[in-house]
What does this fold into?
Amino acid sequence: MNKPSMYEKVTYADVANMNKPSMYEKATYADVPDGVKWFFEKIKQTRRGIYLHGAVGSGKTHIAWAMAQQWIDNGERPPLFWNVSELIRSIKRDFGRHAYDRDHEEEYIMEHHGLLFLDDLGAENATDFVRDTLYLIINRRYEGKLPVIITSNLDLGELSDSVGDRIASRIAGMCDMVELEGGDRRLP
It folds into this structure.
């Protein structure tokens, strides 16, 4: 699979084979703050996800990759890991083409019975198409009590302003809110 950037679509097989973007190769469970670990370790029992939000560069994606690795190390079915903007772009690009494959892929994402990671929610331009697509995915996971770990730079109120109350409400109902504090770790 060609990866033009570190945020390209990452598939089930990529996570299982740990073909993660190189900057996250060294992400380990030891990198996950204890408060986040507590919620992560309860996902199987509670079926609740995690909404991990904080400032740009605070380590959300790194922590998400570390949790994905731990999920696999625990013997669980490999998760799906998507950057939300890339997911929307992929669905939009295929819209009207290969309808069977697109529908099958969307159904798989919505109903995948393992863990789903949605990275950087709120970074995309929230058009009607984006809101409708996100609603379908989030609602299906919500109704099926299927866990999702979401990273975002937006707190729940800001997310509601961006993608709408219906999506934010479902996320609040299915995820524990965890704020990562601290500045941008990418800056020198």
The chain has one domain: 27-149+156-169. The radius of gyration is 15 Å. DSSP finds nine helices and five strands in the chain.
